[in-house]
Specification:
Structural class: alpha+beta
Number of strands: 17
Largest sheet: 6 strands, mixed
Helix content: 40-55%
Radius of gyration: 34 Å
Shape: flat
Length: about 550
């Protein structure tokens, strides 16, 4: 029996050599292929007696074991560290998304979650590319625990469906795990935001100004033609007129004057509904939205696909960074950061069940509401004033019309302009915000006539009106306090670390991870996608710190220049 097999192999070897000598693989006998790992010719036998876990090599006439991923992966491989870290989490919420009845899933939900997170860690975001990686990459094979490679549709449904409720819980579980390991704390946090492009079409915009303008025109036409002032009245009129009309359509059929009039009014009614719906979608905080992704707002990005500053539909992504790890995320439709600060800080408090002591952010977050929020919660503000860099310039100091460049006489309670004329207080208003009285004072110049610097000082079209300035007393006090904080020794250290940690995190996400556009639509799905990305970022950051022996380091101790 052995001699027969040996003879068969030798005969097949000769056939292979003849096929390869012709420099073509198409002439190779059926069942013969080339190994994708080592390039050697292998026999792919269709015999029922063939052992399932062995391949037959016709090059040296011996049996060769199949690929063993356990042997090929080193002990400190990123996939091993990722799997070990994720094993520490509680997956009960994830398993609750699956029914206990019916057929069990081919892949365990815990394994699918690992595959998804590790894919984001490796910069693989597409479900089809993840499927391909599970089939051909050794690290993904090892992560699957010898299970079947999941289909791309399974991965897609898992990302936006099965784990929608569990992914946030698992993310903050890992943050808590990092805290137990001494990697993060609740001493200080660095806040920043960036704009990431939506999957929506780049030219599917709808603008508030256009909708409001067209709505006014439509209402005016309806009033002229029907006399109706409300949409309800117009709909009632259309319903009454339709009762006495026999509607016709199609080629060769002539519409009556009543039908034509009804269709004209109905078109106006549809336009009215459309413009009002657009304004409802935008709400009070946005000036635009995408027709293919209503949660996406058109924002001016720092980089553009055409490199000419065009607007793109995007989301404002906010992150909180502590000790180089992302400890919190949220997604907003706001174009600016100032309105995202309070809801984001509130979310961080709810997720961590405690507050950070020191909050560091750039000038885009400065506002009186944000200052008052931090003061009310007993948190120290390290927010850079918006005029911090501008006030150092000669151009800023030469603007004599600014109240910051005027002298203040505390005894007379007045400001003195560049020409020595006095601006006295004429009105004071006080309102309460977050339990703190907010004071504003209006100052008016006593006489601005025949002033040689009036054109530089006053920007009003009415040159006869006296110069007026508004003194935001409470805001100035909070700004001065924050300025003292950021210029202290601790503030200098935190400001330097903010640019390293939080801006460095966005730099890694966009450049090293290559994540510049979301693959899903809707704020809910986009948020899930970024949670996967943040979790993958944290796992990779921990592995890198472990390789460089930098675990339990929180700040850069280098002196600021």
């Amino acid at each position: 029996m052995l001699d027969a097999k040996q003879g068969f192999f030798y005969g097949l070897k000769g056939a292979l050599q003849n096929a390869l000598s012709k420099k073509t693989h198409r002439s190779a006998p059926k069942g013969v292929g080339r190994c994708v790992f080592c390039g050697r010719i292998k026999l792919l036998m269709n015999n029922s007696n063939r052992q399932e876990k062995y391949n037959v090599s016709c090059e040296n006439n011996q049996l060769v074991l199949i690929l063993n991923s356990e042997i090929l992966l080193p002990e400190d491989a990123p996939v091993r560290v990722t799997s070990a870290q994720l094993e520490e989490l509680d997956y009960r919420k994830l398993y609750e998304a699956y029914s206990s009845k019916g057929r069990k899933s081919v892949n365990d939900p815990r394994v699918l979650f690992k595959v998804m997170v590790y894919g984001y860690q490796c910069g693989i975001y597409s479900s089809r590319k993840l499927e391909e990686a599970c089939k051909y990459r050794v690290d993904f094979m090892w992560l699957l625990e010898n299970g079947k490679a999941p289909d791309h549709s399974t991965l897609s449904r898992f990302r936006t469906g099965r784990c929608a409720k569990a992914v946030e819980d698992l993310f903050y579980q890992y943050v808590q795990l990092l805290e137990k390991q001494g990697e993060v704390d609740h001493k200080s946090v660095f806040i920043d935001g960036t704009k990431i492009e939506s999957r929506a079409g780049r030219y599917t915009f709808s603008w508030r100004g256009t909708a409001e303008k067209n709505l006014v025109k439509t209402k005016q036409k309806v009033l002229e033609q029907t006399g109706c002032k409300t949409l309800e009245a117009l709909e009632s009129l259309l319903s009454n007129k339709a009762a006495g009309i026999t509607f016709v359509s199609g080629k060769g059929r002539h519409k009556t004057e009543e039908q034509r009039e009804w269709e004209t009014i109905n078109h106006l009614c549809e336009q009215w509904r459309k413009y009002e719906e657009q304004l409802v979608i935008m709400g009070n905080d946005r000036n635009s939205y995408s027709k293919t992704d209503h949660d996406a707002t058109f924002m001016r990005m720092k980089e553009d696909h055409m490199r000419n500053g065009q607007l793109k539909p995007a989301y404002n992504v906010q992150i909180a960074v502590n000790s180089e790890y992302i400890t919190g995320i949220d997604v907003f439709s706001n174009r600016t950061d100032v309105g995202t600060f309070v809801p984001f800080m509130h979310k961080l408090e709810m997720a961590h069940q405690q507050r950070y002591e020191e909050i560091t952010a750039d000038a885009g977050y400065e506002s009186l509401d944000n200052y008052l929020y931090l003061e009310a919660n007993g948190q120290m503000s390290f927010i850079k004033p918006s005029n911090y860099e501008a006030q150092k310039t000669k151009k800023y100091r030469s603007q004599i019309g600014r109240i910051e460049n005027m002298k203040y006489d505390k005894e007379e309670d007045c400001f003195i302009c560049a020409e020595g004329r006095k601006l006295y207080c004429r009105k004071v208003s006080t309102e309460v915000k977050n339990g703190t009285p907010v004071v504003r004072a209006w100052y008016r110049c006593e006489n601005c006539q025949n002033c040689p610097q009036r054109e530089k000082c006053c920007r009003k079209q009415d040159m006869n009106a006296p110069k007026e300035v508004i003194m935001k007393e409470t805001f100035w006090e909070k700004r001065q306090q924050s300025l003292e904080n950021i210029t202290s020794e601790r503030g200098i250290q935190l400001r330097k670390n903010r640019s390293i940690q939080v801006e460095g995190a966005f730099g890694l996400i966009k450049n090293d991870f290559g994540f510049r556009r979301f693959l899903t639509t809707g704020k809910k799905n986009v948020r899930i996608e970024f949670l996967f990305l943040a979790l993958g970022f944290n796992l990779k950051k921990r592995w890198m710190k472990q390789q460089k022996r930098r675990l339990e380091t929180h700040y850069s101790e280098k002196k600021a220049a």
